[in-house]
Design a protein that fits this description.
The complex is a heterotrimer.
Chain A lengths: L16 H36 L5 H5 L15 H32 L2 H14 L4 H16 L6 H26 L2 H9 L4 H29 L3 H6 L18 H11 L15 H30 L8
Helix pairs in contact in A: 1-11, 3-6, 3-8, 3-10, 5-6, 6-8, 7-8, 8-11, 10-11
Chain B lengths: L18 H41 L2 H7 L9 H37 L2 H16 L2 H13 L5 H12 L16 H25 L3 H9 L4 H30 L2 H6 L19 H8 L5 H36 L3
Helix pairs in contact in B: 1-12, 3-7, 3-9, 3-12, 4-7, 5-7, 7-9, 8-9, 9-12, 11-12
Chain C lengths: L4 E10 L2 E11 L4 E5 L6 H7 L10 E9 L2 E2 L7 H7 E4 L11 H10 L7 H14 L3 H4 L12 H14 L4 E5 L7 H14 L4 E5 L3 H7 L2 E7 L6 E8 H6 L4 H7 L5
Parallel strand pairs in C: 2-10, 3-8, 3-9, 6-7, 7-8
Antiparallel strand pairs in C: 1-2, 1-4, 4-5, 9-10
Classes of the chains: A mainly alpha, B mainly alpha, C alpha/beta.
């Protein structure tokens, strides 16, 4: 340039309007996205509380639906809660050992193609639709016992297909957090590898492992579709996982809602036409409280029982 | 040293292998490897048992299926029965994905780059709570808040139809009550929001600080920094996050079952009722009352769903793992 | 009962990479032997082959022989677990088990092996080992506190107590003072002097003064360049090594002309 101009002023006040506006608009959109996601959370919580409190009572929690007809306000979800506890327990008993040992394999032993295949397919397995897990459990028992078998354990197996990969993932993460120095310290003391894993690695990670298992339980305890196919419906208390249909909370919610309005005779004060919906909501409130409690306790365990690390 | 430790008389000869510890190690290692292998076996078993139980339906003549199954249409092969269901499943999942992905990316950016550091974990936890709500509760909620008499579904559908009705997707009479695929897709979008957000958030947080600071040092605004550094870095991560969400939406049952008024056509009119149905919801609706051949037919549709979700998930995981290889050690 | 170690023609590999080549040395019993050399010369790697800890790293393997009192550590009927029980190791950074108390840390080697022990025997072993590690007086009133509540130097002495509680013949120390302050370092060095009456001690150190202070023999390792294997240059009495080494590299290193 022949004609040198004066140096430009040192401009630090304002950037161009267009850029500034874009920046503000995008900030607004990002905040809006978050608020938008919060609306269903608030709305679901509000709905469940507002509709659920109507029927929720100690009586509701301690009685089954056996012999309850029409618009009667008696009856409750004891049978469904019992079924949910038993079936979830069965799923946990199956999933936790398999999941934990798989995680141990991946972290402590796994090398080569088998470990890579397991890692990959555990991830793929987390994506199996819950209804397919239900169909699998049904088909498994249909092949073994003939078609139409319906009892609680089948539901437990269906849930364990969904739960195992979650347990593997969370346990793997927790085991990898255990510093290698501790493994080496134990090995250098002449402790065999498997005892090192059991007594040092697992013991150091136990809080995290517990948290992971509880969150996995919370994930499957609300599953409906697989139980609809495998454990079926029932109005009565059944505490035998190996015989007979077994009601669960999610299936109870669906089946109550599915029954719909009850036709009432005019002037029949004992008849509540909305009773089925009200029961469904009350059961939903119970289920949500259980799930949230599981999540909360899991996080408290993680916070308070984590080992103090050697950092000073 | 004042005390002299009393040593057990072990010379160098004590180095020999002892049988006892060998058994324990072998058993433990065996259990670990066995469990890992069992995972692979289970996945194979899922496919095998579904195939075994679907076989009678796969090998029956269309006429037989029609005669013995109440809801199986006449003059239809199994493939043309599954066709509309696959279509409905994909369409519902696509609706959910289109709604959820941009919102999830927004939330992930909010948590990773906008919200104050110390709130970020708590906000992430709030989003995760959305994943903790059981699907049957989403179904109840969807019916009450979106479908029901005073539900907000109808006005939303009406506005979409009035403004965008010239697009075939939004043509047709909006359903009253709003038991349409669009409303079901909206609920699915809420349900897959947490998983997409979680993966996208992870990826955005991994953006190299150097890139971010480089663009800020060039005088970029926060949004320009995100566009220059964060989004390009996270693109493949967002793609795989969306695929994972897609996998989940494909298999969701209860919300669709409770909201959608089903139909078995290849209709694009997502605001109408009685036009589409998804595989999962159809299985749940028909299974409890189905006769043996009906069950076999439903399992055959389930096999189709399994294959579709497996393919989507494998693709998503493959993208993730490829990404991990590239951004790995450096 | 301390034992001598004889190493002959040892090559150490990580996968196909030769990390340390062709080491032959004899480590006498009941003495302190120091390994010195620049970073990355393979002295720690070599140390870990003396109790078969290197095989913890996937792909690591050795060729050649290491024998303790004439028994080859790498023969097929030798259990690496038994080797480590007789050849203890102390690491660069103190690593007490965070889930265990001070006393439990000392007993870890015994307890983790599922061996039963009466309460009084256990108490005796704790006192004896902590006394042996010059730590007893500092911690005797808080044996049930977590091991991680101690200072860095105390933690390292706790790790030494833990190592000697399984009554090894040999103690390997991998830069045991590099994470410690000078006062703690002095405490550990005093401890090493006490321990050598009973144990064969091998110590890796970056600190030449430390090698000169504590050791009777010194081995100097060096590496020609990145990608090349580390080698043992020479080994001799510490006094000889620091006054009149026979190799030029050793002299350069010791006089601080490189490394």
């Amino acid at each position: 340039m022949a004609t040198a101009t004066a140096a430009p002023a040192f401009q630090v006040h304002r950037i161009e309007t267009r850029r500034r506006v874009t920046n503000h608009v995008m900030t607004g959109l990002v905040v809006l996205a978050f608020l938008l996601a919060m609306t269903p959370l608030v709305s679901v919580t509000w709905s469940v509380i507002a509709e659920g409190y109507k029927q929720l009572s100690p009586y509701f929690l301690t009685h089954s639906m056996r012999g309850v007809f029409g618009g009667s306000e008696s009856g409750g979800i004891y049978h469904a809660m019992l079924g949910t506890v038993l079936i979830t327990l069965a799923a946990t008993v199956i999933s936790v050992p398999i999941g934990l040992f798989t995680a141990i394999y991946l972290v402590e032993y796994g090398r080569g193609p088998l470990a890579r295949a397991v890692t990959f397919f555990v991830d793929v397995m987390t994506g199996i639709p819950s209804i397919v897990a239900g169909l699998f459990a049904y088909a498994l028992f249909a092949v073994i016992l003939g078609p139409g078998a319906t009892f609680g354990l089948i539901g437990g197996i269906a849930l364990s297909v969904l739960m195992t990969p979650v347990v593997v993932r969370s346990s793997e993460e927790m085991l990898r957090l255990v510093p290698n120095e501790l493994r080496e310290a134990a090995l250098a003391l002449g402790v065999p590898k498997w005892l090192t894993v059991v007594k040092v690695v697992l013991r150091t990670a136990v809080a995290g492992l517990t948290t992971g298992v509880m969150i996995a339980i919370a994930r499957v305890i609300g599953e409906t579709a697989p139980l609809l196919l495998t454990a079926g419906f029932s109005d009565s208390i059944n505490s035998d996982l190996f015989h007979g249909r077994m009601m669960t909370l999610p299936v109870f919610i669906y089946s109550s809602w599915h029954k719909g309005y009850v036709p009432c005779n005019a002037g029949d004060v004992a008849c509540n036409p909305n009773i089925n919906f009200e029961r469904a909501w009350a059961a939903a409130l119970t289920l949500i409280v259980i799930v949230m409690l599981l999540n909360l306790v899991a996080r408290l365990v993680a916070r308070f029982f984590a080992p103090k690390t050697g950092t000073h | 040293m004042t005390t002299t430790p009393t040593r057990s008389p072990q010379g160098a000869e004590g180095l020999r292998r002892s049988r006892r510890s060998g058994v324990g190690s072998g058993l433990f290692a065996g259990l670990s490897v066995g469990s890992g292998a069992l995972i692979l076996v289970v996945l194979a078993a899922v496919a095998a048992f579904l195939l075994i139980q679907a076989w009678p339906a796969l090998t029956s003549a269309p006429a037989t299926l029609h005669e013995s199954i109440a809801w199986f249409p006449d003059k239809t092969s199994l493939v043309s029965f599954v066709g509309p269901l696959v279509f409905g499943t994909l369409l519902a999942a696509a609706i959910a994905l289109v709604i959820a992905t941009p919102i999830a990316v927004g939330i992930a950016l909010f948590i990773s780059h906008y919200a104050p550091r110390r709130f970020a974990a708590g906000l992430g936890y709030l989003i995760d709570l959305l994943a903790a709500i059981p699907s049957v509760v989403y179904g109840l909620w969807g019916v009450r808040v979106l479908v029901g008499q005073n539900g907000i579904g109808q006005p939303i559908q009406q506005v979409l139809h009035d403004v965008l009705g010239f697009i075939p997707l939004f043509a047709g009479t909006p359903a009253r009550p709003a038991r349409s695929l669009f409303i079901a897709g909206m609920v699915l979008a809420v349900m897959i929001l947490p998983i997409i957000t979680a993966v996208a958030r992870e990826v955005f947080l991994q953006t190299p600080r150097l890139h971010e600071e480089a663009s800020l040092a060039l005088g970029a605004t926060r949004w320009e920094m995100i566009r220059m550094a964060v989004l390009p870095f996270g693109r493949s991560g967002v793609v795989s996050a969306a695929m994972l969400g897609l996998g989940r939406a494909l298999g969701e049952t209860m919300a669709v079952l409770m909201i959608l008024s089903p139909g078995f056509t290849y209709s694009w009119h997502i605001l109408e009722a009685g036009k589409q149905q998804t595989i999962a919801a159809n299985i749940a609706a028909q299974f409890p009352e189905a006769n043996p051949l009906g069950v076999n037919t439903l399992i055959a549709t389930g096999l189709a769903l399994f294959v579709i979700t497996l393919a989507v998930n494998m693709l998503a995981r493959w993208i993730v793992s490829r990404r991990a290889e590239f951004s790995g050690a450096n | 009962m301390a034992q001598r170690i004889d190493v002959k023609d040892l090559n150490i590999y990580y996968g196909s990479f030769l990390a340390v080549a062709d080491v032959t040395m004899n480590i006498p019993a009941r003495s302190v032997t120091a390994f010195i050399g620049p970073s990355g010369c393979g002295k720690s790697t070599f140390l870990r082959t003396l109790n078969r800890m290197h095989e913890v790293i996937p792909g690591a393997r050795v060729e050649g022989s290491v024998s303790v009192e004439g028994v080859s550590l790498y023969s097929s009927d030798v259990d690496p677990v038994a080797v480590r029980r007789q050849i203890g190791m102390v690491f660069q950074r103190p690593n007490p088990f965070p889930t265990m108390s001070i006393a439990e840390n000392v007993l870890a080697g015994v307890r983790l092996n599922n061996r039963r022990m009466s309460r009084s025997d256990a108490a005796d072993l704790v006192e004896e080992s902590l006394t042996g590690a010059n730590l007893w007086n500092e911690v005797k009133d808080r044996l049930d506190k977590p091991g991680s509540s101690l200072s860095g130097g105390q933690q390292q002495r706790l790790c030494i107590a833990r190592a000697i509680a399984v009554r090894p013949q040999i103690l390997l120390m991998d830069e045991p003072c590099s994470a410690l302050d000078p006062i703690s370092t002095l405490a550990i060095e005093d401890l090493i002097q006490d321990l050598k009456d009973e144990y064969t001690i091998v110590i890796v150190t970056h600190n030449m003064q430390q090698a000169a202070r504590v050791s009777e023999q010194t081995a100097f390792f060096n590496i020609e360049g990145t990608g090349k294997p580390g080698r043992l240059i020479e080994m001799d009495d510490t006094r000889v090594m620091f006054s009149s080494p026979s190799r030029k590299e050793t002299e350069d290193y010791i006089s601080g002309r490189f490394g």
